[in-house]
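Lay summary. Proteins are chains of building blocks that fold into shapes, and those shapes determine what they do. In this project we predict the shape from the chain. Here is one chain we studied, written as its sequence of building blocks.
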Amino acid sequence: NMLSPVLEFRDKWLRNGGLILPSSVKLMSALYSDPRFWNSRVTFWNDVYGFDFSPVKNVLIQEQFLWPERQHLEASNLASGVAEVFSIDAYNATKESLQEIRSALSYRLPRTCPCHGAAFWFKALFELSDGSVVTLDTGPEAGYNHWSQVIWYFEEPIQLDTAETSIAEGHFSMDAGTGGAFNVEFYLTTPTPVYKAAQEQNPDTIYQDIFERLEGERAFALKQAADTAPEWPQETTYWDGEADELLTSSSEARFSAVSRYLRDIYYSKSAW
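And here is the predicted shape, written in a compact code that computers can read:
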């Protein structure tokens, strides 16, 4: 959704020999395995505050796994090698070329494991005038980052067995919709067919559990504090004291408490 004005500025004002940074952007993807998270979403419906929703669990599972969502994913949970879905050259791309994107997918399978979804993220390349290239990688293997990743969970996990095949293949498409949104399709053809489709997906509004995100940022901040200055306190009194209350409080209260914690970690420690 940011690329269209960049192309307009390029055509109007970029002089010969001028630079566009980033010079290219790549959409990357990998299959993902996370039994703990997937099962927690499924078993949750067995006991929702004392009520058993298991008779309608299949419908609920289909609904909650219908759309892609943003998460901070673990590199250790990648179930395949990383595949490049498509690449955009900022110097040569046109608005028309971005209206319909079609790409074949090929994932290398390094291990036997269940697969619970397909993950996506971007990689930006900054090609400088001296010939050097700086890469901004927002994938799980690059560590925690602001952008996180997009994960599209399957309604049913599939089994990846390297004794049967070393490659998983499929197709990906993305068509421009209205107001900067996109219609997206993901189709895994082998080893087990999986089809996912979502309409009117906007990068600014894609679903993310805010409490889950802030918990992840808190854990990251704690790890950074421990790695760089072990003498710092690893917990704060208001976090421990409010833990039980937070679980039953509003999302605004959760956001406020975790934000105070992050502010304490990031800004009040002058040594960092």
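What the prediction tells us: DSSP finds six helices and ten strands in the chain.
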